[in-house]
Task: structure prediction
Amino acid sequence: MEENELQNSEAEAARESVPDLGKFKSVDALLRAYGELEAEFTRRSQKLKELRDAATEGQGAVRDADELYRMVNENEGVRARILSDYLASLKGVPLLTNSGTGVTASANEPKTFAEAGSRALGYLKKSNQ
Result:
């Protein structure tokens, strides 16, 4: 019986010395998978850092834009120039009717004062109806 007990204790000791590798067939396979996992973790960490840096730069751009807006708003000359450039870029002359909606004047200009007066009178009669 002692021999049987000796074999059982040796088998148990052998089982305790072999680690449980789970789904991996060998220690080499486990080490290879760990290396791949570590490389993927490094790639993801670098990508996360890039995204955080880009977000920080974006926030800086928003702060810069806010600062630029504040500076322009405080400078009357710059505001007037921007407004003038914007109005010059519009096509036609925006006019307001009684309802407050914008309309655009026709592109053909009157040749005489009489023609201009006739158009203005027609516009005024039409908007009063």
Observations:
- The first strand starts at residue 94 and ends at 96.
- The helical segments are 2-17, 27-74, 76-89, 113-128.
